[in-house]
Amino acid sequence: MNWDVALILSFDGLANGAIYLLAGLGLVLIFSVTRVVFVPFGDIAAFAALSLAAFETGHAPATIGLVLTLAVLAVLVELGVLLRRREFARMPRAVAVWGVLPALPCLAAWAIGGRTMPAAVNIIVSILLVVPIGPLIARVALQPIADASVLVLLIASLALHFLLSGLGLLFFGPEGSRTSPLANGAVSLGGFSVGAQTLLMIASAVVLSGLFYLLFERTLTGKALRATAVNRVGARLVGVRPARTASLAYCAASLLGGLIGVLIAPVTTMYYDSGFIIGLKAFVAAIIGGLTSYPLTALGAVAVGFVESFSSFWSGAFKDVMVFGLLIPVLLIRSYLVPHFEEDAEEIDQ
Question: Is residue 183 part of a domain?
Answer without folding.
Answer: no
